Amino acid sequence: MMNQQRDSRPDFCYTEYDFVYLPMDFMRSWYEGKVSNLGYAFVNFTTSSAASQFCGVYHNYKWDVNVNRKICEITEARIQGKEALKNAFKNKIFWCRNDQYLPVMLYPASNGRRRYRRVNVGRRIPRLPRKPLKKVE
Questions:
Q1: Going by C-beta distance under 8 Å and a sequence separation of 6 or more, which residues neighbour residue 12?
Q2: Where is the Mei2-like C-terminal RNA recognition motif domain (predicted)?
Q3: What is the distance between the alpha carbons of residues 19 and 107, in angstroms, rounded to a whole number?
Q4: How far apart are the two ends of the chain, measured CA to CA in Å?
Q5: Is the peptide bond before 108 cis (omega within 30 degrees of 0)?
Q6: Could you say which DSSP state residue 89 is in?
Q7: Contact in structure between 105 and 122 (CB atoms under 8 Å)
């Protein structure tokens, strides 16, 4: 959306990003049958100006979703940079059924239009643990 405005604004810079991870709540989906995210994401922008520009547009943005109204709050991450993020997640095990839920590095960096190659980070274990048995009293 932001990058589509570039042609009309000569001062506009692409908001390129090269790492994305949206953690999902698999335990809730396991019990309720709905897949939902945990409400936060990790995104590594390629430049500080791209991050600032994204923050300027989306910080305190109100998402209009059916279930509830979410407000986007953007904060500076403790882990900074694509390599640091890759190292933080590379040995992590994710309890998910397919690779679409893993953190990814993008080559080349994405701007929302350019094609890229996804490289998954971390490992997944395809089987979720069994549901606990209900206690009989």
A1: 5, 6
A2: 13-89
A3: 9
A4: 55
A5: yes
A6: H
A7: no
In the block, tokens 């949206």 appear at 22
Q: Name the pTM for this structure.
A: 0.75
Q: Which residue has the tokens 């520009």?
A: 53
From residue 119, give the alpha-carbon distance in Å to each of 13, 53, 95, 103, 109: 25, 26, 18, 8, 12
E strands, the chain, are 17-21, 42-45, 61-64, 69-72, 93-94, 104-110, 117-120, 123-124
Question: Would you state the structure tokens that stand for residue 77, as one six-digit string?
Answer: 């991450």
Q: Which of 117, 120, 20, 24 is nearest to 77 (CA)?
A: 20
Per-residue pLDDT of the chain (137 residues; tens, 9 = 90+): 454 554 444 444 568 999 999 998 877 665 566 777 888 999 999 999 899 989 998 899 887 777 667 788 999 989 999 999 999 999 999 888 789 999 999 999 988 788 899 999 999 886 655 555 565 55
